[in-house]
Amino acid sequence: MCTHHWLLLFVLVFLINHVGKGSALQCYTCKSAPGGLCGDPFNATSVTSSKCTLPDYLCLKQKQILKIDAKEIKEVSRSCVPSSYCRLMLFDHCSLCDTDYCNSSNVNLSTLSNLLVLQLCLKQFFN
Hints:
Layout: H1 3-17, E1 25-31, E2 48-52, E3 57-68, E4 71-82, H2 85-88, E5 93-97, H3 109-126
Antiparallel strand pairs: 1-2, 1-4, 3-4, 3-5
Helix pairs in contact: 1-3
């Protein structure tokens, strides 16, 4: 495939991954309990989602370990929060992201697909 085709492919994949950025951000919303559905591994079909309609709000995934009666309970929460949330609170893990349903797991598939297509384009260009 010629270089121009690879470049066009990269641009198309990039645009497809970023369509709808102007609309409200969609985030998974759940909180784990012992035996809950919000923890890792995560099953996106088992939880609800919500729209982040307020300005400067992002999707959140946080993990914390609660100590109750000398017993440790791992808790995972996913929701929509202000962009300053992780700086104001103390958690074992707190991550924010700004693409639809990005708080599902540690891997952002749209970023991976962009990187893969970019790598293929660069390989074709320099060969």
